[in-house]
Specification:
The protein is α+β, with helices and mostly antiparallel strands. It contains twelve helices and seven strands. The strands form two sheets. Strands 4-3-7-5-6 form a five-stranded mixed beta sheet. Strands 1-2 form a two-stranded antiparallel sheet.
Length: about 250
């Protein structure tokens, strides 16, 4: 729209401060316009009667995964995670991903947390962007994270090194966990690279790509400790020497 290359620029300002042509720009989605129409129709008092103080009204949430009633739900702000799981008839929920791969992952120890616009930084309430994915005990958590990391690696524009290299390295580290070759230091490497990506990436994709792996290691500590290989020879055992020389051996006299 500005006649420049289609790549992200460093986000020093919010769009309402400097957006299109470096001028204040209002960015609203369909849900915002729909909510505005409801407020005009019903009045502000009726709108504020829904939800909770400080976070009035309703929110559209797309629920998917291991539940009997997936679909699009309109809930009042302030509903707990447990109540939403009951609504969608979740089957033995274990891991919940809120607001997509770059959002927040939850364990069932957090089922009483509310979904609202409050306490974003203190992590008391959950600010859901609209996606709510439910995974049960039969799902492999590492495979979920591998799927997320593949998405971020593919979607990275590659313009900045922290995101371009960081997402590649995160995927390789998670693959080590999946193959049973990871050591405790590999978990620390994920945290280290995640912190670097959050601090130095140019746009929100790189800054948030490591959110879920880091949170998952914190909230599912026992699971990850159980996936680590405590042997110092893990990498050597994983190397298949016969496969490595197979091409050579077929031409050997």
């Amino acid at each position: 729209m500005e006649g420049k290359r289609g790549e992200p620029r460093t986000k020093w300002f919010f769009p309402v401060e400097k957006g299109y042509l470096q001028q204040p720009t209002l960015i609203s989605n369909v849900e915002t316009f729909a909510a505005a129409a409801h407020i005009i129709e019903m009045g502000t008092a009726a709108w504020h009667a829904r939800g909770i103080p400080g976070s009035p009204g309703t929110k559209l949430i797309s629920v998917s995964g291991d539940c009997s009633r997936p679909g699009l739900y309109e809930i009042e702000w302030g509903m707990s995670v447990a109540d939403l799981l009951d609504l969608c008839d979740a089957r033995d929920p274990y891991y919940i991903q809120v607001s997509g791969p770059s959002g927040e992952c939850l364990s069932m120890a957090e089922k009483d947390r509310r979904i609202s616009m409050l306490d974003l930084l203190e992590r008391k309430d959950i600010r859901c962007g609209g996606s709510f994915m439910v995974f049960n005990q039969e799902r492999d958590l590492v495979r979920i994270l591998l799927n997320f990391s593949a998405f971020f690696k593919h979607e990275s524009c590659g313009i900045c090194t922290p995101c371009r290299a960081g997402n590649f390295i995160l995927q390789r580290q998670i693959e080590k966990i999946d193959r049973g070759m990871a050591e405790p230091s590999d978990l620390n490497d994920i945290r280290h690279w995640g912190a670097m990506m959050q601090a130095a990436s140019r746009c929100g994709l790189g800054k948030t790509a490591a959110n879920t792996p880091i949170m998952a290691m914190e909230k599912f500590e026992d699971y990850f400790n159980g996936r680590l290989n405590k042997s110092a020879t893990a990498l050597n055992r994983a190397f298949d020497l016969e496969r490595a020389v197979a091409d050579y051996e077929q031409f050997k006299p």
